Each structure stands twice: as structure tokens, then as C-alpha cells.
Amino acid sequence: MAPAAPRRAGSGKKAASWTQDPEGVRRNILAIARAEFVENGLSGARVDEIAAKTSTSKRMIYYYFGDKEGLYRAVLEEMYARIRNFERSLDLAALPPREAIATLAGFTFDYHADNPDFVRLVMVENIHHARHLENSAEIGELNLSAIDMIREVYERGLREGVFRAGLDPIDIHLTISALSFYNVSNRASILQVFGHDMGAPGARERRRASIIDTVLRMLAP
Fold first, then answer.
1. Where does the record place the region Disordered (predicted)?
2. 81-114: string of b/e by CB count within 10 Å (b at 16+)?
3. Most buried of 62, 172, 195, 208, CB within 10 angstroms?
4. CATH number of the domain where residue 49 is located
């Protein structure tokens, strides 16, 4: 059940939106906040600006999220939940081990390329030494599921003799994530230094295939 709204002055469109669709208002706040944090970082984003662009008020933002850092943490939680949910939808357990890893690597690359806001927010959080991730039990649990999924595929591959022994599932995850992340985080600098646009369609497809091949070679016996 949604919490009761605190009393506030005024009626109008914003008040009606809250009472008619509280979850919709919450999603609207998170979407606007995500864009502000991506553009300005945690330090530069302003709750006044976020409130002005939403279907609610500054007071209601504080009611939902406590303060700006609470709002920022909720944005992070939503974004991590989204990528983990997409990963689960791949149903890797139903695929042969090599195909499962190739599918995961290709998906991870595409997800990062198609969701640059995720990459930028992770970069913002690293500037703040991941203290908001540290304070979110939800994100911790979500990310452990990603390692468990790789562990299951890796152990099947070991039993079938298609993967080499001695690898840690987290190293497999880090390799896939790092290769996918770099293609977005360093796109602008690589373009300026080498004149190579990693996001151009042809370059993107070649890089995707190279990353899948690299990960499979890492695992090969």
C-alpha cells in the first residue's frame, strides 16, 4: 500500500498526479533525477531543478527519498536492478556453457553501449569511492546474483571439459564488464586521440565480436 501523502498547500495537477498514480510519480522522479545526476554528478545536481522537471514537488521528493543522497542511491539501485533483471532474462542455465558465456558477453557489451547513462553513473559513484553502493544492501544482493550466474555456467563448462580450471567467476565477470565498460567510458577520448569512433556501427560490431572471442579464449582449456 502506498504511504499517505503529507498535507501540503495547493491542489492542481501535481497534487492530482500524486494521488492518482503514486508509483508513476516515483518513477517520474527517478527518471528525471537520473538525467540530472548523469549530466551534473551528485555534487552538481540540484533537487530544485529535479523537482521543477517532475510531476511532483520538492517536498514530495524528500518524502519519498529523504534527501538528495537518498534519491541518488535510489537511482543507482534502480539502474543496477535493471541490468541484473535483463541478465536473468537470458536464461543462461538453458544454454550450453560456451554459448551461455558468449551470450552474456554480447548482452553485456550491448547493454553498456545502449545505456551510456549506466556507465556515467558508475563513473560518478567511483568518484565518491562507492560509498552509496556500500550503504545499499539491495545493490550488494543484486550484484552477487551476477557472480552466481557465471559460477553456474563455469562449473558446467568444467564438468563438460570446455573450460579450463583455475579461474574465479568474479574474474570472468570483471573481464566482460571491463571490456564492455571501456567502449562507452572512453569513446570520446579514443575518438580525439586516434580518430576512431568506437560507437560507429561497423566499429561497434567488430568490437563486440572481438570481446566475445577474447572471453571465450580466456576460458578455453
1. 1-20
2. eebbeebeebebeebebbebbbbbbbbbbebbbe
3. 172
4. 1.10.10.60
